[in-house]
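Possible regression after last week's pipeline update?

I re-ran a chain I had predicted before the update to compare outputs. Posting the input and the new output here so someone can diff against the archived version. Not blocking, just want to make sure nothing changed silently.
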Amino acid sequence: MPRLDPDAATVIGTRIRGLRTERLRVTQTELQEMSGIEVAAIRRYEAGKALPSLGVVVRLAFALGVDPGELIRGLRPADLPEHPSVAVPSRFAAERRHRIGA
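New output (post-update):
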C-alpha cells in the first residue's frame, strides 16, 4: 500500500471535499444540513486545518453515504499528531514492528 501524506487532517479533509463535490455535488451548507456539522467546521476539515473527532467522522461519513473507514483508510499512527494520552509504549511498538517484519 502506498504511503499517504503524513498529515491526517489533510488526507481526511481531501476525502471529505472530494466526496462532497464530486460524488454528491452538494455545498458545504447542504452537507451541514445533512450531517449537523457546522459549515465553519466543515471548512476547517476540508482545508486540513483541523482533525475531526471520531464522532464527526462517523456523522460526515453517514451524510456522505460512505463507511467511516473510507475517510480514514490507510492512515497509520505515525500520520496522526502526537498526543500524550494516546502515545504507544515503545516496547509495544518495537514488538509490533518485529512481528510484522518492519
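Follow-up from reviewer: compared with the archived run. The radius of gyration is 16 Å. Marking as no regression found.
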